Amino acid sequence: MTRSIAENRKARHNYFINDTLEAGLILTGTEVKSLRLGQASIAEAYAGEKDGSLHLLNAHIPEYKGGNRFNHDPLR
């Protein structure tokens, strides 16, 4: 069983959503740790086509506080 990490609740109120898709993400180690702590914001995020595939754009996953110099970029 999977659980949802982040959800844009206002999307269904602000927009008409005709179809929904379920997709996976390729994450770095510090992104996974931040998401496990429940620290994600996708209120301004959207999916866009790039190089023939869909990419999540403008999603904010804050830096992992226990990370070092290899921490990820918070805004993708």
In terms of quaternary structure, what is this? single chain
What is the number of strand segments? 2
Dominant shape:
globular
SSE-based structural type: alpha+beta
Fraction of residues in H or I helices: 10-25%
Which band does the percent of strand residues land in?
5-15%
Radius of gyration: 14 Å
Report strand order across the widest sheet: 1-2
As residue ranges, the low-confidence spans are none
How many structural units, i.e. domains?
1
The name of the CATH superfamily reads Small protein B
CATH topology: Small Protein B, Chain: A
The profile of the biggest β sheet is: 2 strands, antiparallel
Report on the architecture of this protein.
The protein has 76 residues and is α+β, with helices and mostly antiparallel strands. The chain has a single domain, classed as Small protein B (Small Protein B, Chain: A, Beta Barrel), CATH 2.40.280. Helix content is 16%, strand content 13%. The protein has two helices and two strands. A two-stranded antiparallel sheet has the order 1-2. The longest helix is centred in the middle third of the chain and has 8 residues. The chain starts with 10 loop residues before the first helix and ends in a 19-residue tail after the last strand. The mean pLDDT is 81.
